[in-house]
């Protein structure tokens, strides 16, 4: 499958690549989402049927939409699925989207690997969002139980924009949500520095 709105369907960075989300990856993603439910907006574990229905009703129709609400990618290392993510809650008029990212559960235990692989993902996604789609702004919401995740965002042009105090309840305790934003102007400056 490919996204009608994308000129280039694949984005590569060394051994890593983003490709339009593949149907065969959906059940692995479901397992990772259930494993990492505390860091997601997901309220309950997903069943195989829940995931299949989501793919059929939400993801598949987005491929043919010239301005879809979401653009999701399978994240590959040497052709093997290691994560997924993309752009969600896309507002084409305001030229903004939210960043979504989830790495395979076992890979999240190594903070250095996580930082490296999340950073590579973000740089490829920024190229898609700002370069291909012409968006102006990306934003992310992260629960304040993931300092290593926040650090990677901030190292890749996402500036802190706010704190939603006691925004969610995780395992019986209230947790803040942190909002970060990255503007196209930052991405353009970074590209011009690299091209010199």
Fold and architecture overview:
The chain is α+β, with helices and mostly antiparallel strands. The protein has a single domain (11-195), classed as Gcn5-related N-acetyltransferase (GNAT) (Aminopeptidase), CATH 3.40.630. The protein has helices spanning 26-35, 48-64, 111-132, 147-155, 184-195; strands at residues 11-13, 16-20, 71-77, 80-91, 96-103, 137-143, 159-170, 173-183. It has an eight-stranded mixed beta sheet, with helices on both faces. Helix 3 crosses helix 4 (147-155).
Which helices and strands occur, and which strands form pairs?
Layout lengths: L10 E3 L2 E5 L5 H10 L12 H17 L6 E7 L2 E12 L4 E8 L7 H22 L4 E7 L3 H9 L3 E12 L2 E11 H12 L1
Parallel strand pairs: 5-6
Antiparallel strand pairs: 1-2, 2-3, 3-4, 4-5, 6-8, 7-8
Helix pairs in contact: 3-4
CATH architecture: 3-Layer(aba) Sandwich
Which class best fits the helix and strand makeup? alpha+beta
Mean pLDDT: 95
CATH superfamily: Gcn5-related N-acetyltransferase (GNAT)
Distance between the termini: 37 Å
Number of strands: 8
Task: Give the uncertain stretches in residue-range form.
Answer: none
Gyration radius, in Å: 16 Å
Strand order within the widest beta sheet: 1-2-3-4-5-6-8-7
Order of helices and strands: EEHHEEEHEHEEH
Strand proportion: 25-35%
Could you tell me the CATH topology label.
Aminopeptidase
Quaternary state, please?
single chain
- Sheet having the most strands: 8 strands, mixed
Assigned CATH class: Alpha Beta
Count of distinct structural domains: 1
């Amino acid at each position: 499958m490919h996204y009608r709105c994308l000129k280039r369907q694949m984005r590569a960075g060394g051994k890593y690549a983003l490709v339009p989300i593949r149907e065969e990856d959906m059940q692995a993603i479901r397992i990772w989402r259930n494993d990492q439910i505390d860091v997601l907006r997901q309220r309950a574990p997903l069943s195989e049927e829940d995931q299949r229905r989501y793919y059929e009703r939400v993801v598949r129709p987005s491929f043919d939409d010239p301005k879809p609400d979401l653009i999701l990618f399978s994240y590959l290392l040497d052709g093997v699925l290691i994560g997924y993510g993309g752009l969600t809650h896309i507002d084409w008029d305001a030229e903004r989207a939210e960043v979504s990212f989830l790495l395979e559960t076992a890979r999240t235990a190594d903070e250095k690997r996580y930082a490296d692989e999340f950073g590579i993902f973000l740089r490829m996604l920024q190229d898609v969002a700002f370069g291909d789609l012409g968006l102006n702004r990306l934003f992310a919401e992260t629960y304040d139980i993931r300092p290593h995740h926040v650090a990677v965002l901030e190292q890749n042009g996402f500036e802190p924009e706010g704190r939603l105090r006691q925004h969610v309840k995780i395992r019986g305790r209230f947790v803040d949500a942190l909002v970060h934003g990255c503007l196209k102007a930052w991405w353009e400056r970074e590209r011009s520095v690299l091209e010199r």
